[in-house]
Design a protein that fits this description.
Blueprint: H1 2-23, H2 36-48, H3 54-72, E1 77-86, H4 92-101, E2 107-114, E3 119-128, H5 130-141, E4 146-155
Antiparallel strand pairs: 1-3, 1-4, 2-3
The protein binds nickel (II) ion.
């Protein structure tokens, strides 16, 4: 009976390993030739950013370029807009709400936080067409009373494995 239990355990572990292997893309090693100074600067940079390996740091740099391309080529993207504004400004809130109603296709979530008596922070999660997302942040930024608007350009994560 004990032997059967062990066999069963082994099969279960093997199944898990196979399943995980299917989910992950294959890993390849390759050599990179770069000037010594550049590698030293790279190592210093990634140490400051808390990376423990060159592979992860290099992978992230490549992903950053791929995400930039997704935005340029109009692929489906994800990201976030943050707004800082003074809610006492006349008609500001209704203007911001009107704009968001016109961009429902790209907005998936909005969170409003009252920072203090005057200032509000709004986080708008976005997903969809990058041109729409850019248009949305431009419209919001141009509203009188909006002090700061940023667009965090990220990815749905599908094309950057
Ligand atoms: Ni508020």
């Amino acid at each position: 009976m004990k032997r059967l239990d062990n066999v069963y355990l082994c099969v279960t572990i093997l199944k898990k390993v196979i399943q995980n292997g299917r989910k992950m893309s294959k890993v390849f090693r390759f050599g990179v030739s770069l000037p010594k100074d550049l590698i030293d600067k790279f190592d210093k940079l990634i140490k400051e950013k808390n990376y423990t390996s060159r592979s992860k740091a290099l992978g992230d740099l490549i992903r950053q370029e791929l995400i930039k391309k997704e935005w340029q080529e109009g692929k489906e993207i994800a990201g976030a807009i943050t707004l800082i504004y003074n809610h006492h400004k006349r008609e500001l809130l209704s203007k911001i709400t009107d704009i968001q109603h016109n961009f429902q296709k790209v907005i998936i979530f909005t969170q409003h936080i009252h920072l203090d008596h005057d200032n509000c922070l709004e986080i708008i999660a976005i997903r969809g067409n990058p041109k729409e997302a850019q248009k949305l942040v431009d419209r919001l930024r141009s509203v009188k009373g909006v002090k700061h608007a940023t667009l965090s350009m990220s990815s749905t994560g599908k094309g950057i494995d």
